[in-house]
Amino acid sequence: MHWQVDHQPNDVTHALRALSAVLACGAAPQDVKWTEGEAAQGDLLDGTAAPPPPTEAVPGRALRQLPVGFMPLAETVALHAQADRYERLHELAIDLADDPRRWRDALDPRRLSLERMAREVRREIHKMHAFVRFRQLDEGNGEVHYVAWFEPVHHIVRAAAPFFARRFAAMHWAILTPALCVHWNREGLEFTPGVDRSEAPPPDAGEALWLDYYRSIFNPSRVKTAAMLREMPRRYWHNLPETQAISGLLQQAPERSARMVAQASESQRRMPIGVPRVAERAPRTPQEQLSDLGRRARHCTDCPMAAAATQTVWGEGSVGAQLMIVGEQPGDQEDLAGRPFVGPAGQLLRRALVELGWPAGQLYLTNAVKHFHFLPRGKRRLHKTPGQREAEACEQWLEAEIRLVAPQAILALGATAASSVLGRSVGVAQSLGSWWQRADGLPVWVVHHPAAVLRRAESGAPDFEAWVEAMRPALQRSMA
Ligand code: URA
Fold first, then answer.
1. 292 C-alpha to center of ligand 1: Å?
2. Does ligand 1 come within 6 angstroms of the Cβ of 10?
3. 315: Cβ below 6 Å to ligand 1?
4. Shortest CA distance to 412 belongs to which of 463, 449, 387?
5. What is the model's pLDDT at position 251?
6. Which of 195, 129, 212 is nearest to 163 (CA)?
7. pLDDT band at residue 179, thresholds of 50, 70 and 90?
8. How far apart are the CA of 331 and the centre of ligand 1, in A?
9. Contacting residues for 79 by C-beta, under 8 A, at least 6 apart
10. Which of the residues 78, 153, 237, 297 could staple to 243 if both were Cys, CB 3.0 to 4.6 A apart?
11. pLDDT at 432
């Protein structure tokens, strides 16, 4: 059975409802043709083509049963211009419906490519906010109408419009684009079909003023062409009045500045237009992927701890380190410093590693949970053991770190770390003194958490010397 879903690029609600419908009827991505245009007669959504009942062989799936992060991702990706975006979302939705644990795989190639698309959409919304330049049109009744022309690549006009409504609430304005125009009459937003560039207003007096102002603030000795290009990609230039002035300004600059700027411009000219910025290229080496992962984890909000903590505390060390040490979660000091194992428990661990003669370059230090979990008590923040929800939310990051660092062995500090690394609930007492194996074959050694040693809080927690000795087999195995 083949389905045709006609959707309008500027009506993502319709398209996401269609995605929900094809999922519910168990259609496979290759059986659904997504075409841009007016909603067709007899398509899946108008009921004239009844979807088949789900069968066991082709089970229906419900969007609402997918991990909570899927819909926000889908809503952003739906604004991307890439024609196969719904097919890709459909594929990921099916993967997730069949195995929701895949959402915890931060390196899943399908998820990665959709997240890249979502980033491109967000970036363009940001650029639209920054680069729309209104021109004044006198309406003849004493009113001024501000009109701008913008050419987005993605379908972002609806998503970007509320910003302008807030920012220019008292003005009467319109932003014209080839695909969709938005108008603000000081009361509400109205969307109308796109128009041709010829309908964009000509330069006006306001623009001359703006150019004068731009010339006056332009400082050629501080010009950073690469940063300027990064912030203002060339494809926006032809609609930005200030770009007409830039080359002239550079020429008039004192000779030395002009030479510096010209050299920089030359190197930029050699960069073909359309080549993505380095930071946006698909990461190549595991080390680059690891850094990229850390950057993404900084914005993770999969559990409520993210809102209360100061920052994500990412792992420290290099890809290929022979031993990975996994702690529970950052403490108060780690949360403030943004580095793992710098507080009292961390210092005890570092002292133990020195006593064992552990080469620092062969270590990767991280935590099962990446945010500080605490209870506020007056001015103090009391450590709170992370629950299953927090550990599960962070599992994707830890698993991706393990895969990229690819250590020879893992040393788990305490029960939370051991449970996260082994993927099931384990206690410290039952795990001490023997090697455990993860599903991927990696050997895991478990010792008490340094905080337990520090406080001798748990019954059976060893003293410092015994704890150091308990760690030794992990060193020997990872160096073997
Ligand atoms: N500091 C960390 O970074 N992790 C722990 O588990 C304890 C202290």
1. 22
2. no
3. no
4. 449
5. 64
6. 129
7. very high
8. 6
9. 12, 121, 154, 155, 156, 159
10. 237
11. 93
Is any atom of ligand 1 closer than 6 Å to the C-beta of 414?
Answer: no
346 lines ligand 1 (CB under 6 A): yes
CA distance 400 to 229: 33
User: Is the model's pLDDT at 235 over the cut of 50?
Assistant: yes
The values of phi and psi at residue 426, to 5°, are -135, 150
State the DSSP string of 54-104.
Answer: P-SSS----GGGS-TTHHHHHHHHTTS--TTHHHHHHHHHHHHHH-GGGGG
Is domain 286-479 given the CATH code 3.40.470.10 in the classification? yes
For the chain, what are the domain ranges? 3-126, 132-199, 206-267, 286-479
pLDDT in tens, 82-91: 999 999 999 9
The answer to whether the predicted template modeling score (pTM) of the entire model surpasses 0.85 is no
The 3-class SS string of 117-151 reads HHHHHHHHHHHHHHHCCCEEEECCCCCEEEEEECC
Report the pLDDT averaged over residues 186-212. Answer: 81
Question: Percentage of the chain surpassing pLDDT 90?
Answer: 48
DSSP strand pairing (316-317 vs 363-367): antiparallel
d(CA 147, CA 194): 14
The residue contributing the CA closest to ligand 1 atom 1 is 341
Cβ–Cβ contacts within 10 Å for residue 458, how many? 16
What does residue 60 show for φ and ψ, rounded to 5 degrees?
-75, 150
Ligand 1: nearest atom to the Cα of 328: 6
158-167, 184-193, 251-260, 415-424: least confidently modelled range: 251-260
Does 343 contact ligand 1 (Cβ within 6 A)?
yes
Whether ligand 1 lies within 6 angstroms of the CB of 366 is answered as no
Residues 6+ apart with CB under 8 A from 328: 367, 368, 369, 385, 386, 413, 414, 416, 417, 449, 451
What is the identity of the amino acid at 53? P
Residue 83 alpha carbon to ligand 1 centre in Å:
46
From ligand 1's centre to the CA of 190, what distance in Å? Answer: 53
3-state secondary structure of 413: strand
Q: Is the pLDDT of residue 436 over 50?
A: yes
Distance 169 CA to ligand 1 centre (A): 48
Interval between CA 477 and ligand 1 midpoint (Å)? 23
For residue 371, the 8-state DSSP code is S
